[in-house]
Amino acid sequence: MFSIKNLLKTGVVLVFAGILVLAGIYLSMRSNLPSVESLKDLQWQTPMQIFSADGKLISQFGEKKRIPLTLEEMPQQLINAILATEDDRFYLHFGVDPIGMGRAILGQLTGQNKGGASTITMQVARNFFLTREQTYVRKIREIFISFHIESLLTKDEILTLYMNKISLGHRSFGFGAAAQVYYGKETKELTLAQIAVLAGLPKAPSTMNPISRPDRAMQRRTVVLQRMYSADYISAEELSAANKEPITAIKHGAEIELSAPYIAEMAHQEMIDRFGKEAAYTGGYKVFTTVTSSLQYAAQQAVVNNILAYDQRHGYRGPLSTLRPVDDKAQATGIDDLNTVASTPISDDEVIKALASMSSYHSLVPAVVTATFERAAQVKLQDGSEVQISWQGLSWARAYINDDKQASPPVTAGDVLTLGDVVMVAATESGYRLSQLPDVSSALISLATDNGAIKAAVGGFSFEHSQFNRVTQAKRQVGSNIKPFIYSAALDSGYTLASIVNDAPINQWDRSSGVVWRPKNSPPVYNGEIRLRLALAQSKNVIAVRLLRDVGLDKIIPYLASFGFDPDDLPRNESLALGSASLTPLEVATGFATFANGGFLIQPYLIERIEDSFGKVLFQANPAIACDRCEEAITKITTEENDIFDDIAGKIDMLENYDSAVAEDNQLAPKTVNKAQRVISAQNAFLMTEALNSAIWGADWNIKPFWQGTGFRGRALKRRDIAGKTGTTNQAKDAWFSGYSRRLVTTSWIGFDNPSRKLGQTTYNSNLGKEQTTGKEFGAKSAQPAWINFMKVALAELPVEPFEQPEALMSVRIDKVSGKLSTKTDRSSRFEYFELGTAPTEYISQDISSQILDGGSETNSEDGIFD
After folding, report:
1. What is the pTM assigned to this prediction?
2. For position 664, what pLDDT does the model report?
């Protein structure tokens, strides 16, 4: 028998030998062990979040959900639950728990493996540096890495890493994300029962998941609570109360506060361009855009409502499908069988099956017609509820024939709907209304005129229906929206707003095509000699052509390019004057901003700043500011601008008085004021704004309806400090309205994605047996309503701010017909602005005021002014 002394000697030798073996293994593995230095400056793989300027979450990109928290931000009960469940001696061991290790080895030898070997430190080592393969080599590497981690980090730092890294199911990583995913809460809002559920997830996040396996989650919760009680973290009363709580977890997504998918995608793509896809999705970036939630919501409502209004003007295209349609076999059975089929109630199962895969769009939801009455119908929605549609919600549904024609108005509900029709309906203040998913498309973009900040952007009716962003991707012919730029070139070439040009038909032989080119006014009304201000307000096509001819294409092309337009998009022929150039709404709005801000070319931008997951500023936008003397602009914007555009004043103030301490803390270099490029004179910009104001308020108001401008509907805003221009292309395939105040420019476009289709007109067969035309679809009717409804909201937040008259301009009284000086003070004259040295010097020699009062078109209808 061995003596105690020999046994001790043997034990010492074995321990020494074990240490030597362990040291040898360590030396052999050391070169292959990963460096744990990266844990000191860890970049969490957290999703990218997109926010509005006022901090509302727009979207989140990235598969992994993680909300990094400091240990101080985590509730103590959650920390206690983790320690009690995962590693109750965490603050006592050196990375490896000898007691737990011994218990695990003994369990392996006796066949009663109860775990207990893996400490929190070892789990951190595995989660950050190793795989989950079950091998002894991997376990040894895990132990060595744990030693390194313990030597490098404090216990609190290690615990923080663990609680932010651990996978907890449903793509949530860390307890901050898990609290949001399972309970829609922050960790500090969790109850003890909910904390125990989450603390039990690291063992098996799939099989003990409270959503998919609530029974297993409850069993695991009991274990966690019992261990907390055994460790004196909770009382017996708390244990009993928590065990009685039901499992309440349901899946929560990111709480989107502002639905703006086109904005989100624009910011998302810019982030990928900046950082690459992997970094953008996992870098935890918080991206703050320039859009404000109030304006973005207003833009979306304006576009959607305008599209629906246009779509319903052009008739009902019928149901999406019909349940149990009468087929040829049914028809052969006779009229009695047909009536039976038609009157058989639609079952709930049929409705559920028909609507299961259908999507909703804004206020439009799918439904099945379950009954029709004389002038009403009953439909069943996806949730099983039944609602009634009154005649007010059905009477609009004339049958669609083509883009130019609709059938006569319906007389009964049966003219529109039949039993089993699958349709779209919309809830309104006056009840449910029959609707349909529109064919037509639209876009709206709004920019801050001083720096190009995108304040709102809507790229279509529904991002879910079409991801094509018509704000930035749709190059469409701009029609008369090009005319202000042609007129600006004419002013730059010696014309004035009082210059007289002949409004008469043009006939020009085109040798290349062998035909005569005859550009026409719309409507085809010609008034002979006319002043430039009137011509632009009335959008006279032939005047624009004559101006282009006189100025010359060689000057016009580079002049228009100075507004930011790509010269390759500008046709080198006279059709350019009529809007044959194809531009995006964003490009058009950028061009108009030059008139609004006094002559500067601004660059649109969307991202205001980028922060990391802990709020450290990584990027701050430094846009070019539209100002000659920026120091004066700072004072003006700061004292006069509304909060909606505080970012402009704040931007300039930040650039002028950048705090070096803040710059150093955020690792951002101090900025200087970035001045925008002046592309036209302040005088030219002011004169063009005056002319475009006449397009809304009239060049010679109170004379005759004909003299009103094409954008007269804008008067509904009751703001004199606005200007704008309609635009309609050949055959009315595109309709535009672009307009602005001093601080905001907005462009609205409507048309079909299929360029072969035209907006057409609303014409239908009347009950009298003849067609009735109620209106043609032009810029003022089709695009301007969206602009008006948006600007109604935007201008309510901006003070009235007249456009400031620059130096070197004078105002003199002229005769309205001849453009010459006048001494009269009646309606035959008006004051007009001129650059110094360009005002007329000749006085009118005779009284021709009667020509003003009696001449011109007799068009009194609103639709008589088309463009």
Report:
1. 0.82
2. 45
